[in-house]
Input
Amino acid sequence: MKKFFRLLKRWINMLNGKSSFHVKQDKGKCYSKTEIKGYYNDLTNKVSEKTILDENGIPINTTITGIKAYFPISIFQYALGLYDLYLMEKDIKYLDEFIKIANWAKNNQESSGMWKCMEKLNDSKHKTQSSMCQSEGTSVLLRAYIETKNEEFYNKATLAIDYMIKDIESGGTCYYENNYPIFQEYVSKENLSVLNGWIFSIFGLYDYTLINNDEKYKQILNKTVECIAENLNKYDHKFWSNYDLKGTIASPAYHDLHIKQLLLLYDLFGKKEFLYYAKKWEKYQNSKAKKYLAMVIKLKQKIFKNKYYDVNTSLVR
Output
């Protein structure tokens, strides 16, 4: 019963946009289309007094069941927020803290290039690898390479991105449909194709193409961008956006994130579909009735629809 009330409180905070794990993420203030600089989404709100750090400055999360975990996605997003704060405020303390996490990323990467991700939360629904984790880890390592000129950071980033683009049947994080890559934040037989995770995966690959001219990576990038543009209609719930391709509706926080991410994709790649759906979903967002309906459906799905996600992995701290 105690777990249920903790979970209910988390869901209510998430639906109202008050969850520390679902902070507002506007367009990054320091990103560049031609070189690796700031991150594409503004993750500076991830850096707050609510973040619990260990003695080495590495974030620690706690799940609804009380498991304490070094969850790579949370760690990498915290690092990218630190890096943007460094660029914005020119305060070396942010860079020092960022490099600590970059070293953690380097030292905790498997020889395959993978970071163990979902198993850190005892996730029973998915395999441990995650394209979003690989991508954001790549973005951290590449920024550390830019700052330090340490080749090991670049080499580790290459391992990470090579693992991300590997087919899930070969142990990677990408589902290839008719040779078009669809990156999987959650790897399972369901091929959930979570929208925000797919887009975050694109950002890391885009970073890598800014520093590596190999046409292989550019071709994969162009194909996945084309693929996501052509499939956006499948994420349209007709009054709100979907979180994945299984009809799971997005929370208000994720709906807002979808809009911001699509505007970023439009800025980076210029495809009209990104702007079209960003504007369409903004109109949904501006309707109180549609937002209320989405929240009701989302809460119902959270309580009764556990087929695709393990509710016990929910982070409360």
Q: What stands out?
A: The first helix runs from residue 2 to 15. The mean pLDDT is 93. The domain at 26-233 is CATH 1.50.10.10 (Glycosyltransferase). DSSP finds ten helices and four strands in the chain.
